[in-house]
TrEMBL record:
The chain crosses the membrane at residues 54-76. Keywords: Membrane, Transmembrane, Transmembrane helix. The keyword Magnesium does not apply. This is Uncharacterized protein. It is found in: Endomembrane system; Endosome; Lysosome membrane. It is a multi-pass membrane protein. It comes from Didymodactylos carnosus. The keyword Membrane applies. GO terms for cellular component: endosome; lysosomal membrane.
Length: 89
């Protein structure tokens, strides 16, 4: 890029850091993000280890969400039973 332009690496760094303006000159950045339609998505180049890490992360998060939902269900059910017993007793 030019003298004051940002290259792809710099733009990615600015996006990931959440910076809104230049630290030196205080120029405010204008960033636009668009999500491509699903049919235009491209496959990421990943090795076996990276794929395994992503799959383990997805599996772990699914298990965690399932545990939270199940725990909520059990707590709500127990609370209902307690409320019901107090009304009858």
């Amino acid at each position: 890029m030019g003298r004051f332009g940002l290259g792809p690496e710099s733009v990615q760094g600015v996006k990931s850091a959440g910076v809104k303006s230049c630290e030196l000159c205080k120029f405010e950045f204008i960033m636009h993000a668009e999500i491509k339609p699903f049919k235009q998505w491209q496959k990421l180049d990943m090795n076996v280890v990276e794929r395994r890490k992503i799959m383990c992360s997805v599996a772990f998060n699914l298990i965690a969400v399932t545990c939270v939902l199940w725990s909520s269900h059990v707590l709500i059910d127990k609370t209902r039973e307690e409320v019901k017993l107090r009304k009858l007793g």
